Amino acid sequence: MKYFIATLGTETNTFSPIPTGRTAFMGARDWFRTDGSLQATTAATLPLRTWRARAQADGHEVVESICAFAQPAGLTLRAVYEELREMILDDLRRAMPVDVVLLSMHGAMIAVDYDDCEGDLLAHIRAITGPRTVIGAELDLHCHLTETMRENASLIITYKEYPHDDIVERAQELYDLATRTIRGEIHPVIAYYDCRMLAIWRTPYEPVRSFVDRMQTYEGHDGILSVSFAHGFPWADIPDVGAKMMVIADGDEAAAAALARRLGREIWDMRDSTVASYVSLPDAIGMIRDNDSSKLIVIADVSDNAGGGAPSDNTIILRALLDAGVDNVAVGCIWDPAAVALCIEAGEGATFDLRLGGKCGVTSGNPIDMCVTVRRCIRPLLQTGLSNGQATLGDSVWLHTAGIDIVVTSNRQQTFAPDAFTNCGISLDKAALVVKSAQHFYNAFAAIAERIIFVAVPGCVMPDMNGLSLPRRTIPMWPHVEDPFA
């Protein structure tokens, strides 16, 4: 049999000031024309590597198209999306006939004039392959599940974990179900349930942890093939925004719909106990003051998370640290390519006045003018990314000012792991580390932190669901209304 595989994705924040252009895809580390599965392990290449290895081990032919994944940001330019889509479609036409198409996509990619890039791509692929080809998609759980996706995909699998440390497991699951489908062993049908909710669910925490574990126990029993909880991505003003339950059953759509509804109602019923909690910035500063270096505090700057489309150059927390006079703290990672270039030109050991951050827009805060010392230049700075893949922060510098160490990068990316600091030479023997991330940092930093706290200052992905303006979502949503099902 012949398997066709490809990766195309980004997560679109319609409130982000940074448009997603051609360079965001084709100038990035995760851009490969036909051989992404043979390249270094990243979150984007992992599914391709998994599918190629499995298919070849089973004696199947593999045709690989593009691997293109852009850092989350604002709307993708229309011409850019269409160019990437046509690359995949042209490769598919040349490869026809194919038995199975496996796609790694985000599920929340929006382009100018395209609210649902994934659904659009799936529809174009189905038009080429016809009804007999099995089309499967692996999505991030922060996706927008749409009817166009459901109508054109044979199978849809989302990650179950946040942080997303199960990318390979979900790729394996999709391959297994797709192979069983093309062999005629199963006949998958997909059902959604709209939870009508905007929220953040952290899977390591109860009661979400137990729910995710419990929903998986239905898989493989009574005709249920797969269960996914799609958290949705709230920072997108489109009609399909919001959380959904998805169940795939073997030929029994009523059973799939019934279980999706039951599990979706469980999510609704535990809404008050799953609301994410945040510490105020003054309280966080107080915790640092009271701390000693033997008990590391990790502070998540969730509102400036590049993984949600934020610029990652917000200066509010750094400004507060400087104003409070606290020291023995490290902050990372601030995106400021211009500052990095100047510091590299100045060289290690140089001390000079620098304007840092606050450059992308109103959600970035104000630039900070300060005297810094360049402790080290790293070209490039690498960190451990999702599912232990390698991620690059590009040319980067370690700056020191007023007892605070700062990692400044030329690639915009959230902080995933402690090696974003240690690969610069920064010791983790600190009173606190401030990381620009919402959740993906958690597993790696929990191993070294005495305490992890989440701080939500004004920013591009501030987790204030009541403050989100989503006029294009016409169906009532919690917490905008107390009971969206009334």
From TrEMBL:
MF terms (GO), sorted A to Z: metal ion binding; metallopeptidase activity
Key words of the record: Hydrolase, Metal-binding, Metalloprotease, Protease
Domain Microcystin LR degradation protein MlrC N-terminal positions: 3-286
Cofactor binding, note field: Binds 1 zinc ion per subunit.
Family annotation (InterPro entries): MlrC (IPR009197), MlrC_C (IPR010799), MlrC_N (IPR015995)
Annotated ranges, domain Microcystin LR degradation protein MlrC C-terminal: 299-468
Biological process, per Gene Ontology: proteolysis
Cofactor(s), names only, from the UniProt record: Zn(2+)
The keyword Transmembrane helix is assigned to this record: no
Function: Involved in peptidolytic degradation of cyclic heptapeptide hepatotoxin microcystin (MC).
Protein family per UniProt: Belongs to the peptidase M81 family.
Designated name of the protein: Microcystinase C
Organism: Komagataeibacter medellinensis (strain NBRC 3288 / BCRC 11682 / LMG 1693 / Kondo 51) (Gluconacetobacter medellinensis)
